[in-house]
Structures are given as structure tokens and as C-alpha cells.
Design goal:
single chain; 387 residues; alpha/beta; 5-stranded mixed beta sheet; 13 helices
Length: 387
Amino acid sequence: MSEKTLRKGNEALAEGAIRAGCRFFAGYPITPQNEVPEFMSANMADAGGAFVQAESEVAAINMVYGAAATGTRSMTSSSSPGISLKQEGITYLASADLPCLIVNVMRGGPGLGSIGGAQGDYFQATRGGGNGDYHILVLAPNSVEELGNFPKLAFDLAEKYRMPAMILADGILGQMMETMAFNFEPVDPNKLGKFDWAVDIYKNGRHKNNVFSYKGDGLIADVVERAKRYGLIEKNEPRFEARQTEDCDVLLVAYGLSSRACLEAVVKGREEGLKVGLFRPITLWPFPSEALKNAAQHAKAVLCVEQSLGQLVQDVKLSLNGAKPVYLNAYPAGGQPSGATILTAVRSALNGQTEGLFDLQRHAEGFTYHCQRDLTLGVQGDRKGGK
């Protein structure tokens, strides 16, 4: 383990990626992840790698496709709407079975949204934001230290299963500073060996390799084979953290930065005599469903805390399948939870109240909406018969 130092989240991530053997980075500027390409531009060449500021997010992800096809540890990073632009390229990487690292330092949305930290890209990451039947590995750090150490884990898993991996981080996590240490020795990519599938120099008796994303008549067999791999990943690779779940009356479920506010709620709640526990999924895909079921065994209620409008809560409900009442404490579009606001929702879940609990139908009670078309306007917005 390296010496502890004070680092910014995005910079820890970028340095961790280089230490993990990343030797190709292509990206495009967008807040709040800009320190990642900035760090890469200053340090990648010294590590013997290549940095490219692409002309767009679309170009960047396709450059990663080309570099990953050679077996090089390759990476791109962006923030929410930038990741949306990369989705087609991500599907091609998934179809070609190419390992790489994609980082999303999330901001508020939808659309351009805001630069405030958020978690509104959960569905996009875990359901696949592009077309077709595919998954990507999704890791969710909750500290600067994890942000710096997860690139090695992401590359290792991506190469083990030949598929893209994503680190999904809240924008605030990318911008905050904490003490951290790297828990792995620097990786020399020259000592990792060559992949037998990778594109390389065709000489000295080496077989010619082609990397295809288009499978043509073999598509059905290809998708079915990949599904078997996904099943193996769901069995072997879920990761999570559980705290004080053995006797909890209310189990909090949260990932990333929200889980830290939940930990504050666990500590303060216990001081007040409230039995609160915390379950933190570290892999968002594969989601640790079985571990969540075990953690919720003795709970009277489960409370999801997320900086989005009810996305994580869907996986929690699917995992528990009605065995426990599941509530939502939501902070969408850049809202931030705190221990105090979470405890308000905890009390409501225990006492049958509603303060702090979000329900879409209840939220809409008393609200009326009517959209009227102005028939005096023509197709182009000019007034018919007007002067």
C-alpha cells in the first residue's frame, strides 16, 4: 500500500488508472470530470502511453474501441450528457467483447442539466444505455480512496470477462479532497502478456486476428453465449458492504456518496435508540441481490436513499420481491441527502408517516395539468389571418 496523501477525487482516479496499467486515454472536456483528462494529458506520456483530446465524445469512445482491440488497457471519461453521446460506441465495444474502462462522473440531468453531483444515470449504466441485449460491469465508489483504487479492479474484471467496465461516481466525489492510499503496486502492462484475440503485428508465424462488432448470421449464438458469461458474473462478482444489519429495524440501501450520508444516519440513529443498518452495493451490475436479501432478513422496512428519482429502488424491490416494505428517500437533479433528513424518513417508515418518503402518486395528489394547443397558430407559429 502506498503512503496516504491528500488528493482530489478525479486526480486520484486518473493516477489510479495509470498505476493500473492504462496506456491509452481519449476524452473530451465536460464538468465535473475535467481534472481526469487534464491529469492524463500531463502524465500519460511519461508513463509510456498516449493521450488524445478527441474532437467529440463520439470520437473518443471510438478511439477507445481501436486501442482496446490491440489489448491495450484503454479508458475514457466524461459526465452524464457526454456519456449519452458515447452510448453507441459502448454497444460496439460490448458487441466486440472488448475490455476497457469508461468513467462517468455524474451531474444533474436530464439533458444538459447542471454541474451539481447527482445519481440520475443509474438506469443508463445498469440497463445499458444503447441498443441490444448487453451489460457492462458497473462499480460505484463512495470515497476518494475507492475512486483511486477501482480502476485496477475495473480493468481486471473487464479483461477477465472481455467486456467494458464503468466506474459510476457522483460529481461531488470527483471534486472533493480526502486522504487516500493506493492499495496495489503499479502495474507494468508490458508484463501482462498478450491476449490471443487481440489485433497485433502479423508476423513470425502469429495468427491473423480480426475484431468484429458485427456478427451477421452468428448474432443469435453470440448473444446467447454472452448471456452465459453474464450469468457467471452475476454468480461470482457481486460486491457490497453491510453495516449493522444483524438487528436493524430499518435497512438503508444506498450507493456512492449517498451511502456516506446514510452512515451518518446509522450512527446518529443508533445514538437515539433507532436500530438502523446500511447496505451499500459496490457493484451496481451485477447487483448483489442475494446479499441484500440476507441483510434485510430482520428489518421491518427498507429505505432507499438516492440522488435520483427512484432508480436504485427498482433493483431493491426486484431483489426483495415483496418480502419487505420498500420506501424511497429521493434527492433528484443535484439534491443532497444528510443524516438528519434521512433519519426523518427512517422515523416515517417505522411509524406509518410520510415525511421524507417519496411516492410519485402521492406527490401528484391535488396537482392538475392541462396542455392546450393554440389553434390560432399555424404550423410555423404564425397567426392565421393575423396582421
